[in-house]
Amino acid sequence: MPMSKFDNGRQSSVAVSAVGLRKSYGDKLVLDGIDLRIPAGSVFALLGPNGAGKTTAVKILSTLVTADAGELYVGGHDLAAEPQAVRAAIGVTGQFSAVDSLITGEENMFLMADLHHLSRRQGRRVAGELLERFDLVEAAKKPASTYSGGMKRRLDLAMTLVGSPRIIFLDEPTTGLDPRSRHNMWGIIRGLVSTGVTVLLTTQYLEEADELADRIAVLNDGKIAAEGTADELKRLVPGGHVRLRFSDPAAYRTAADALTGATRDDETLSLSIPSDGTQRELRSILDWLDSADIEADELTVHTPDLDDVFFALTGGAKVPNQTTSTSTSTEDVR
């Protein structure tokens, strides 16, 4: 569905808008006319394999690289006509830390404050608040070279926030972090969004996109292969099913004989019925159980995860063009 032009920022609810974004390096077409629309105060994730164009998209939208074509607006500013205004509105944290390891964490913060032309007093105040916010006060006067990977990432993001950006580009911000540090970073990102900050996140961690993103776009071969919420994307690939579990062997056998297409598990007395998880399908199953006077002890809806979506969309598998509703509990259906 075509998007409307950003209209010089009058659509204040849209933080980032890209229509027909194209970029080539020589004969290599990296971005093939992609469209993005990111609402303010949300997390938008770009997923894709290496070389899909994720980092190039971030570099273009953060004014580091020039697009070949496209109508691009960031923070209400035309990217081509007002690059300085865009830079003033954004913050960028890349895959590789911008932290200077030869100086202390505090000195890194002061340096960033100077780059933003803050007064000495204001710079120290902002640095102190951010060091406290990111739990770096005890390490502030130690060389950044002594920091763990998670601490460096927190310092890097703290430095990005010195200029109080309302839009932040996070290019694979948790690459190489251990699970605990990654979860800590997720909490920080959620905290930023709760204050109204908009985040464009690129990541190869599918769990990360599932946890954080309001909407996800899967980028493959320079094009958007699919876009939607995590739940919507999970319903694009086959493999969804409803699982019925019984405690009564007789009820199990009756249901197994009657439900066409169900896969049996005689050991657990369970049936798996192919389903897209819509409320209509669930109600149909429950109505049949009621009419047959069969009691299932448990009904659960299983949908594919983002791993399945990722491999289907980037590995050449055909994905059906369909939309499904949210998983529904037995109580809701009844």
Q: Could you describe the 3D structure shown?
A:
By secondary structure, the protein is α/β, with parallel strands linked by helices. The chain has two domains: 14-228, Rossmann fold, CATH 3.40.50.300; 241-333. Helix content is 35%, strand content 25%. It contains twelve helices and 14 strands. It has helices at residues 54-61, 83-89, 105-115, 120-133, 149-160, 179-194, 206-212, 230-234, 249-258, 279-291, 306-314, 330-333; strands at residues 14-25, 28-39, 43-47, 69-74, 77-78, 90-93, 167-171, 198-203, 215-220, 223-228, 241-245, 263-265, 270-274, 298-302. A six-stranded mixed β-sheet has the order 6-7-8-3-9-10, sandwiched between helices. A hairpin with a 4-residue loop joins strand 12 and strand 13 (270-274). Helix 3 packs parallel to helix 5 (149-160). The chain starts with 13 loop residues before the first strand and ends with a helix. The model is unreliable at 1-11 and 317-334 (pLDDT under 50).
What gap, in angstroms, lies between the N and C termini?
35 Å
Give me the CATH superfamily of the largest domain. Answer: P-loop containing nucleotide triphosphate hydrolases
Number of strands: 14
Strand fraction band? Answer: 15-25%
CATH class of the largest domain: Alpha Beta
How large is the count of helical segments? 12
